[in-house]
TrEMBL record:
<dbReference type="Pfam" id="PF01063">
    <property type="entry name" value="Aminotran_4"/>
</dbReference>
<dbReference type="GO" id="GO:0005829">
    <property type="term" value="C:cytosol"/>
</dbReference>
<dbReference type="InterPro" id="IPR001544">
    <property type="entry name" value="Aminotrans_IV"/>
</dbReference>
<dbReference type="GO" id="GO:0008696">
    <property type="term" value="F:4-amino-4-deoxychorismate lyase activity"/>
</dbReference>
<comment type="similarity">
    <text>Belongs to the class-IV pyridoxal-phosphate-dependent aminotransferase family.</text>
</comment>
<dbReference type="InterPro" id="IPR036038">
    <property type="entry name" value="Aminotransferase-like"/>
</dbReference>
<dbReference type="InterPro" id="IPR043131">
    <property type="entry name" value="BCAT-like_N"/>
</dbReference>
<dbReference type="GO" id="GO:0046394">
    <property type="term" value="P:carboxylic acid biosynthetic process"/>
</dbReference>
<dbReference type="InterPro" id="IPR043132">
    <property type="entry name" value="BCAT-like_C"/>
</dbReference>
<keyword id="KW-0456">Lyase</keyword>
<protein>
    <submittedName>
        <fullName>Aminodeoxychorismate lyase</fullName>
        <ecNumber>4.1.3.38</ecNumber>
    </submittedName>
</protein>
<dbReference type="InterPro" id="IPR050571">
    <property type="entry name" value="Class-IV_PLP-Dep_Aminotrnsfr"/>
</dbReference>
Amino acid sequence: MRVLALLDGTLADPEAPLIRVDDLGLVRGDGVFETILVVDGAPREQGPHLDRLARSAAMLDLPEPDRAAFERAIGLVLDNWTGGREIALKLVHTRGVEGGDGTPTGFALGADISPKVIRQRAEGIAAVTLDRGVEPGLMQRAPWLLLSAKSLSYAVNMAALREAERRGAAEVVFTTPSGSVLEGPTSTLVMVRDRVLTTPPADLGILPGTTQAALFRAAEREGWTTEVAPIAADDLYSADGVFLVSSVRKITRVHTLDGKALPDSTGLHAALDALYESEY
């Protein structure tokens, strides 16, 4: 099932043509997006997602997203949803049509969670490490690369996932040329060792994770230690657990990395999943 809401407060048919062929979000990837997980009608981290949408838009020099209009569109999707208990709710904001009057394009699209993602949540995934070609300090030296913006320009990320599939895996852990961990194409990495949860620092050009932040809040409340610190890729193989987290995938464990089985983290995954769910 899918429900499409426009920023003018109306619903649209998700099967009908909507985006103009000269929309810059389509022809150049010149736009930003967010995906919110909705469970039983309740959006998770809606405020942080809208904050991040505005932050990404500012990095691209886009018009500021109309927060009230997006909130109204979110409400329309939820009010008209009759599908499953979980929704992947995507918010899209583009620069609008090429040569137009500067009016941005925006909408909210709700869709069922993919059965593949639900299966991966339960069973875990195999991943491979791939070089992203990004070194510390690059984001500061070259802000025009938009390393920490959630832009529509996801061609590299999708190419990386196809490469993972060619290597017999389902996911990717991006690394720097010197061997530091970055993130997944659509997720944040969390490593666990001795009840310490570690995620790489955002100054590497990593998109700050809303689900990772929620998990860290819950973990800290229950006495776990959390830190934002560099992670060497080699350290992942001996960690108590390696997890890729995002709004839609929630907390997904990596059971195999570069063809090597990682330590069994089934019990740890259950504990982290319970911590995350306790936030809601």
